Amino acid sequence: MRKFTYLAVFETDETPGISIYFPDIPGCVSCGDNFDHAMQMAKEALALHIYGMEKDGEKLPERTDKIFGIEAGDMVVPISVYPDMVKDEINNRREKTTVTIPHWLKVAAESEGLNYSRLLETAIKETLGFAV
User: Which end of the chain is more exposed for a tag (fewer CB within 10 A), N or C?
Assistant: First the structure.
């Protein structure tokens, strides 16, 4: 299983909360209310950013381990993510969709206790040629 680790900068100032950015991954930013929350948000931001880059066919940047411009009170923290787990979670999440069927068919299906979601999923898989 692939694992990526990038350095994150946790910035603190006079305002509440912690700002987070990844010097090697421009545009990957987040924030948290406290250190534990910031760690959670940093992992989520990095995982989703990598997912988006890979989905768009972008090459992931190399980790440089060189951080410039750190101010007093800032922390540099390595953040590790497993992009394949994130991809599987996103691709397999359940999504609600609306379908329209005749009233008499809905009544008949409900009287038989049919599960619309399972039935629709199975029919789509069969139609597309996926193993059921």
Answer: N
Tokens describing residue 88: 């599987």
- And the tokens for 89? 């979670």
Mean pLDDT for the stretch of residues 15-19: 90
Fold (topology level) of 4-91: Double Stranded RNA Binding Domain (3.30.160)
Torsion of CA 55, 49, 43, 61, to 10 degrees: 100
Question: Which residue ranges make up each domain of the chain?
Answer: 4-91, 94-132
27-73: pLDDT as tens digits: 999 999 999 999 999 999 999 999 999 999 999 999 988 888 788 88
Residue with tokens 């619309």: 116
Place of tokens 């969709």: 97
Say how far apart CA 48 and CA 28 lie, in whole Å. 9
Burial class (CB in 10 A: 0-12, 13-18, 19+), 111: exposed
The arithmetic mean of pLDDT across residues 74-84, rounded, is 94
Contact 42, 77 (CB under 8 A): yes
